[in-house]
Amino acid sequence: MVLGVHLLGVERILIVPHTRCALAMHSEAEMRSQVSAASGQDAAWTSWNVVTDQAAALREDVARVRSHPLIPKRVPVGGLYDVDTGRLEQRSERSMPRGNPTGLGARIQD
Q: Closest by alpha carbon to 53, among 30, 21, 94, 90?
């Protein structure tokens, strides 16, 4: 991201989680069970890093990028892909309501 902003002319950074994400809709145990059933192999040893609050996870990811000393403050950071509409929405630190995973900011593309 740093190289993109400073050497390639990148003007915005999108972190793109998506709606209806299996990792946001199921527990670790459910994911292990589903993968075990689908693969025919025991997946009890795996960790899927499920996301219990997708909006909070996006805020944390944006904050992590935003706080990097080599990412200029002028570069917008954030995003959300809506799998139902096919739209990629920009969500910045200011446009991400707490606890509302569907609250969207400015539209990036239709």
A: 21
Sign of CA dihedral 98, 82, 13, 15: positive
Alpha-carbon dihedral of residues 60, 65, 67, 73, nearest 10 degrees?
A: -120
Structural tokens at position 94: 């200011």
Domain chopping of the chain, boundaries? 2-22+52-109
Amino acid occupying residue 17: P
Spatial separation of the C-alpha atoms in residues 98 and 100, rounded to whole Å = 6
Tell me, what's the pLDDT at 40?
97
Predicted structure pTM score: 0.64
Q: What is the full DSSP assignment across 3-38?
A: HHHHHS----B----BTT-HHHHS-HHHHHHHHHHH
